[in-house]
């Protein structure tokens, strides 16, 4: 099956082309609407780069399909079986990948207030394809869908009930495609059915989230109504006392918009030590920088708190999975997260295995560890392709 996976951002367009779940080519177009847009095509282990002026997403899609045809990756758009779209927020409406039609488009549009930075761009990609190629099947895969299995007591906030009914205020969770993918890969590594496993998945990148997965179903996750809740992140605060917001408004001459921008763009690692690149933070720690050391300790401490909470929720834990840019590459973070966990959880890291992780799926626990510790590179595009394939196959 030939599937094109698309992730449309406000000024970017990323795609991967899959044939029977094998990635054949990828295209990234950045700086859309700017004087010099940047395009890179990766195909057959080679990269082609060029700059041009791409005025909008319509032109970006024209560029994308022209590149695919000129490079003989496809001969015509009609040979595609489907296009799978990443859509950030599915709100209360979508708990699974969904074939896109007019009703679905309008439901995604109605959710823009819940994801004003992402859903408009995702929607624009869908509408451009629908207008240019109306016969081409499109599937929406929602970041929030995987977490819609959370029980009500985990999904709801202790706020007036009518806020849920009237404004859809509840916890939705994000990074669902990544959590779903690594959970399935963990089951393969452990050679056990996913339905029998209790997992804690840690997606650690500039954005970070944890999930408690029981029998393949998310029962809790750290992000909430928005991606701001939960773990400390690159530039997002994660969990804070909500009373801090009115306090800053009243005492620091900040309006709500300024506080919101601070919490999302100027907090987290960046807020504490001035840097949100974990590699540079570790370099500065080695040079004796106290703020970087504090930021790292805060970051790890909050991950450990969520592991403890989710271990309680799950009852027992079969494996903890590290993924995302930091989870996959920062052996120091994995070491610090696992430190001191032997007595409480029977978790024992193998230091040499942890140091030697090389971008492949790896087990990093000591044979005596009661919990398996796994590093699994995420592949959200492949998961979107798989979910798109499932939807299209049901139509046949």
UniProtKB/TrEMBL annotation:
<dbReference type="GO" id="GO:0005737">
    <property type="term" value="C:cytoplasm"/>
</dbReference>
<dbReference type="GO" id="GO:0006083">
    <property type="term" value="P:acetate metabolic process"/>
</dbReference>
<keyword id="KW-0963">Cytoplasm</keyword>
<dbReference type="GO" id="GO:0005524">
    <property type="term" value="F:ATP binding"/>
</dbReference>
<keyword id="KW-0547">Nucleotide-binding</keyword>
<keyword id="KW-0067">ATP-binding</keyword>
<feature type="binding site">
    <location>
        <position position="86"/>
    </location>
    <ligand>
        <name>substrate</name>
    </ligand>
</feature>
<keyword id="KW-0808">Transferase</keyword>
<protein>
    <recommendedName>
        <fullName>Acetate kinase</fullName>
        <ecNumber>2.7.2.1</ecNumber>
    </recommendedName>
</protein>
<feature type="binding site">
    <location>
        <begin position="203"/>
        <end position="207"/>
    </location>
    <ligand>
        <name>ATP</name>
    </ligand>
</feature>
<dbReference type="GO" id="GO:0006085">
    <property type="term" value="P:acetyl-CoA biosynthetic process"/>
</dbReference>
<feature type="binding site">
    <location>
        <position position="14"/>
    </location>
    <ligand>
        <name>ATP</name>
    </ligand>
</feature>
<keyword id="KW-0460">Magnesium</keyword>
<feature type="binding site">
    <location>
        <begin position="325"/>
        <end position="329"/>
    </location>
    <ligand>
        <name>ATP</name>
    </ligand>
</feature>
<comment type="function">
    <text>Catalyzes the formation of acetyl phosphate from acetate and ATP. Can also catalyze the reverse reaction.</text>
</comment>
<feature type="binding site">
    <location>
        <position position="380"/>
    </location>
    <ligand>
        <name>Mg(2+)</name>
    </ligand>
</feature>
<feature type="site" description="Transition state stabilizer">
    <location>
        <position position="236"/>
    </location>
</feature>
<feature type="binding site">
    <location>
        <position position="7"/>
    </location>
    <ligand>
        <name>Mg(2+)</name>
    </ligand>
</feature>
<comment type="similarity">
    <text>Belongs to the acetokinase family.</text>
</comment>
<dbReference type="Pfam" id="PF00871">
    <property type="entry name" value="Acetate_kinase"/>
</dbReference>
<comment type="subunit">
    <text>Homodimer.</text>
</comment>
<dbReference type="InterPro" id="IPR004372">
    <property type="entry name" value="Ac/propionate_kinase"/>
</dbReference>
<dbReference type="InterPro" id="IPR043129">
    <property type="entry name" value="ATPase_NBD"/>
</dbReference>
<keyword id="KW-0479">Metal-binding</keyword>
<dbReference type="InterPro" id="IPR023865">
    <property type="entry name" value="Aliphatic_acid_kinase_CS"/>
</dbReference>
<keyword id="KW-0418">Kinase</keyword>
<feature type="active site" description="Proton donor/acceptor">
    <location>
        <position position="143"/>
    </location>
</feature>
<dbReference type="InterPro" id="IPR000890">
    <property type="entry name" value="Aliphatic_acid_kin_short-chain"/>
</dbReference>
<dbReference type="GO" id="GO:0008776">
    <property type="term" value="F:acetate kinase activity"/>
</dbReference>
<comment type="pathway">
    <text>Metabolic intermediate biosynthesis; acetyl-CoA biosynthesis; acetyl-CoA from acetate: step 1/2.</text>
</comment>
<dbReference type="GO" id="GO:0000287">
    <property type="term" value="F:magnesium ion binding"/>
</dbReference>
<feature type="binding site">
    <location>
        <begin position="277"/>
        <end position="279"/>
    </location>
    <ligand>
        <name>ATP</name>
    </ligand>
</feature>
<feature type="site" description="Transition state stabilizer">
    <location>
        <position position="175"/>
    </location>
</feature>
């Amino acid at each position: 099956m030939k599937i094109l996976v698309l992730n449309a951002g406000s000024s970017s367009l990323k795609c991967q082309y899959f044939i029977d779940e094998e990635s054949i080519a990828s295209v990234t177009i950045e700086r859309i609407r700017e004087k010099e847009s940047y395009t890179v095509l990766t195909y057959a282990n080679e990269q082609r780069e060029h700059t041009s002026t791409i005025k909008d997403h319509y032109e970006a899609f024209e560029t994308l399909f022209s590149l695919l045809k000129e490079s003989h990756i496809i001969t015509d758009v009609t040979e595609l079986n489907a296009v799978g779209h990443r859509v950030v927020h599915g709100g209360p409406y979508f708990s699974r990948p969904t074939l896109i039609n007019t009703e679905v488009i309008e439901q995604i549009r109605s959710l823009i207030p819940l994801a004003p930075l992402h859903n408009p761009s995702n929607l624009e990609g869908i509408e451009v394809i629908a207008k240019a190629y109306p016969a081409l099947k499109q599937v929406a895969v929602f970041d929030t869908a995987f977490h819609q299995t959370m029980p009500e007591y985990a999904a709801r906030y202790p706020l007036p009930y009518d806020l849920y009914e009237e404004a859809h205020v509840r916890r939705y969770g994000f990074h669902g495609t990544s959590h779903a993918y690594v959970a399935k890969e963990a089951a393969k590594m452990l050679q056990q059915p996913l339905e029998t496993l209790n997992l804690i998945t840690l997606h650690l990148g500039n954005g970070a989230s944890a999930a408690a997965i029981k029998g393949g179903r998310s029962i809790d996750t750290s992000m909430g109504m928005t991606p701001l809740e939960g773990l400390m992140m690159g530039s997002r605060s994660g969990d804070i006392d909500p009373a801090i917001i009115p306090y800053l408004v009243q005492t620091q001459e900040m309006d709500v918009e300024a506080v919101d921008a601070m919490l999302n763009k100027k907090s987290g690692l960046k807020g504490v030590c001035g840097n949100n690149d974990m590699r540079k933070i570790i370099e500065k720690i080695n040079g004796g920088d106290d703020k970087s050391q504090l930021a790292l300790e805060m970051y790890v401490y909050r991950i450990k708190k969520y592991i403890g909470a989710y271990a309680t929720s799950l009852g027992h834990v079969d494996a903890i999975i590290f993924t995302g840019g930091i989870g996959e590459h920062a052996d120091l973070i994995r070491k610090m997260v696992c430190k001191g966990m032997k007595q409480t959880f029977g978790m024992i890291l193998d230091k040499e295995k942890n140091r030697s992780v090389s971008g492949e799926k790896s087990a990093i626990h000591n044979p005596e560890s009661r919990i398996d510790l796994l590093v699994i590179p995420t592949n959200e595009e492949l998961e979107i392709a798989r979910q798109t394939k499932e939807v299209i196959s049901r139509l046949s």
